[in-house]
Amino acid sequence: MLLEVFIIQKGTSFLLARKAFTKKEIRMDGSLFSGMISAISLFTNELKIGEIQFFETNDYRILIHSWKKILIVGIVEEKDEDEFIISTLKKIAQEFWKQFQYSLENWNGDTAVFENFPITIDEIFYSEFAQFYIERNYPNNVISVIHSVQYKFEPHILRFIGIRIGEARSNTISQKQMKKIISFGQDFPEKQILKLVEKEINHFSISEVESKEVAGKKSIQITLKICPICRGIHDNSFSCDFIIGFIHGYLNGIKLGFSFNVFESECHAHGDQYCVFSAILQQEK
To answer: What pTM, to 2 d.p., does this model score?
Structure first.
């Protein structure tokens, strides 16, 4: 797992941005770490032995990607994630350079100009995570991956990953299916949407999908008879954030001019019989 990313200016030890990804905190002086990485990079360049790409300590693996005038450094726990980590570091580096090339060339030392970039790092990392670990082999490893990270990632991150996967799955709806839905000519093709949602959710659970009305608004209610996310968990503060995000991403990814607000109204982890999710129709054509 990628624990933290550092963006360092080449040729100096200036730490431009830093972002942690899990609840596990690494107690490290960022300036000292940046100085060490810069020194290693400088020495290898002076010795003309090529740029160092990684090194290891007893606890961590440090991956280094050089791009233009910056160094992107990732601190990693596992050795078998290099392909994912390197791909992610490259995309972060390219986006940082795209946004701040001019700023760096005329930089006065004020790091405030980069203070919002960690938000972009989040989006790149978790989108890459969703694509690499879930979408690539969907639906075979959805549950195992989410179980492995649901106590490492914050709830909003699990929802973000769910949204990305849901959006990706909505893009798999064939043109033939879309034409069939549109051909019904209804303001809201209720039956067709219900069938699509049930088919998709049943890839990783047993579900019941039906139409409801909540506070005078049309809604879709999804009941998971066996929830793969919270099964075996008894915690009133828990919520099935990945599923919430997945339903949101899938429904809003179907480009029919409708938007949905999704929430979990009942959860097995709270003592309820089933996990129940409601998708409230917010906007019609």
So the answer is: 0.85
